[in-house]
Design brief:
4 helices, mainly alpha, Helicase, Ruva Protein, domain 3, DUF3562, single chain, 112 residues
């Protein structure tokens, strides 16, 4: 594979996932090497390597988000247990983002 093609693929993955191009390039080259070791047909290796890298990076991103979310929950729990005042919404209108979304049919019926 030509380096211009690799550069394009790496830049595209970096833009889509938000990871630095250096990290994406390293992961892409590793995935390409893993796949090419056992491959009989090499025509689709760039595609499969790109898909593998995107999946790995999204998984890593999801895991870090989960860890951040759980640490935020732990901090909130600690505040509640320590007696620190927790802010609650002033009115039910402040909780509108917590209400379930209505389907189009229910929205149409409500407007009629």
């Amino acid at each position: 594979m030509r380096t211009e093609d690799q550069d394009h693929v790496v830049a595209r993955i970096a833009a889509d996932t938000g990871f630095p191009p250096e990290v994406v390039r390293e992961s892409y080259l590793a995935a390409f090497a893993e796949l090419s070791a056992d491959a009989r047909v090499h025509a689709y290796l760039p595609l499969f390597a790109a898909k593998r890298v995107i999946a790995r990076l999204r998984n890593a991103n999801a895991e870090s988000a989960t860890q951040t979310h759980s640490s935020n929950l732990d901090a909130a729990r600690d505040e509640v247990l320590s007696g620190t005042q927790v802010a609650f919404p002033a009115s039910p209108d402040d909780c509108s983002h917590l209400r379930p979304r209505q389907t189009r049919q229910r929205q149409s019926a409500a407007l009629a």
